[in-house]
Design a protein that fits this description.
single chain; 392 residues; mainly alpha; two-stranded antiparallel sheet; 11 helices; 2% strand; binds zinc ion
Length: 392
């Protein structure tokens, strides 16, 4: 699937995402090193196609009704970035540094510290040694086909805010804060944990109603929080709900700043950064915006890791720091001026859901071609709808 950076219907998922092909996982052939040979062959063909579009482009001639002979313009296409969740990147780029290995990151030499703590990703200080390894070494054995794209740079493979924050660290943050606050009986004071969770649910729903936001989550429950003692808490919410819950927590804890000062620092700094990422329409952030995110992001990570260290000393499972959290660090670092939200996959996930429905109605033997045909039949109508919405 690809989309145009210059397209006019960016907020309409089906009118902005263009399907290139459908590849059933049953066709995957893996080699001994775990590289997905099928995906790599397909990306080789896609690379050749895109490079042809970058070098030769498409000639656009005058309308047939006006003679059709005059060349109006020549359109060229250049790949400027890659969107996808981490698993997809691992398949497409054949990364040998990933969430399941000691070295976790495709962008730097950050590691979990299983053998050596030097580049450990829980060092979130400004001078953390891993910061000076940004883009220094390649995260693959053999360079994958996409590296031959015209203008390719590894930094174009951008972490996806939806998966790393809204479905990642944001859920860990909401889970740990809620667990402590519910246990404490200061903000919600029902007799049992369940009655306090009910109070919290009512307050959350009221907040969503007051701010005109919808919620997918029906109730806050122990199950939804992974309350068991041998697990890190994580609030199992949708990406959108995570954002609502974190804003609600900030408002709810405000009167308790003398007790939950650190929690409010975490919520205030992270909510500010993500409101900026998601709320800024421009492709590029200004120098001032980048500097503010760097400062607030650094405060957020240092407080978070500080709480995590204290929790370990107290033998409590709270404030989980996982490989995704390290990608959040890269997003706050903002080495590139591009707004990281431009590489989040909300719209892509939406299209995939719709295509999934089409797929379920298509005979499995002909699914590859069937889904493409049905998708193409819908394209004119999608564009018409998006244009109508745009001109209002
Ligand atoms: Zn890294």
């Amino acid at each position: 699937m690809w989309s145009s950076d210059l397209g006019s219907s960016r907020t309409n998922s089906v009118a902005s995402r263009w399907l290139m092909g459908v590849l059933p996982a049953s066709l995957y052939k893996m080699n001994a090193d775990g590289a997905n040979l099928t995906v790599l062959s397909v990306t080789r063909a896609i690379t050749e196609s895109f490079n042809k579009m970058a070098r030769e482009g498409i000639t656009v001639r005058d309308l047939k009704s006006r003679g059709g002979g005059v060349v109006v313009t020549r359109l060229k296409f250049v790949v400027t970035g890659f969107r996808g969740d981490w698993k997809a990147f691992v398949q497409v780029f054949g990364f040998n540094r990933l969430y399941s290995t000691d070295k976790v990151c495709w962008l730097c030499d950050g590691c979990k510290g299983s053998h050596n703590m030097t580049n450990c990703i829980t060092d979130v200080s400004v001078n953390a040694p891993w910061r000076s390894t940004y883009l220094v070494t390649a995260p693959w054995g053999t360079p994958p086909p996409y590296t031959s794209l015209v203008g390719f740079e590894l930094s174009m493979v951008a972490p996806d805010l939806l998966h790393i924050w809204n479905l990642g660290m944001g859920r860990d943050l909401a889970g740990s804060i809620l667990k402590v606050v519910i246990k404490d009986r200061r903000v919600f004071n029902g007799q049992s944990i369940d009655s306090r969770l009910n109070e919290a649910t009512d307050a959350l729903r009221q907040y969503a109603k007051n701010t005109g936001q919808s919620l997918k989550i029906k109730r806050l429950t122990r199950g939804k929080l992974h309350w068991e003692t041998r697990k890190y808490p994580e609030l199992m919410t949708s990406g959108h709900d995570t954002a609502v819950v974190l804003e609600w927590l900030q408002e709810t804890l405000q009167p308790y700043v003398h007790i939950y000062g650190d929690f409010l620092t975490l919520l205030w700094t992270s909510n500010w950064c993500f409101r900026l990422f998601y709320g800024t329409k421009e492709w590029f952030l200004t120098d001032a915006q980048r500097q503010t995110v760097r400062v607030l992001g650094r405060v957020f990570l240092q407080v978070y890791v500080g709480l995590a260290r204290t929790a370990i000393q107290n033998k409590e499972l709270l404030w989980r720091f996982r490989p995704k959290s390290h990608l959040v660090d890269h997003c706050f670092e903002l080495r590139r001026a591009v707004n990281p939200s431009r590489y989040s996959t909300w719209m892509d996930e939406d299209v995939l859901k719709k295509l999934g429905k089409v797929l379920s109605m298509t005979a499995s033997k002909t699914a590859q071609i069937g889904v493409l045909q049905r998708y193409l039949m819908g394209v004119p109508e999608h564009i018409r709808q998006a244009e109508l919405a745009r001109v209002g």
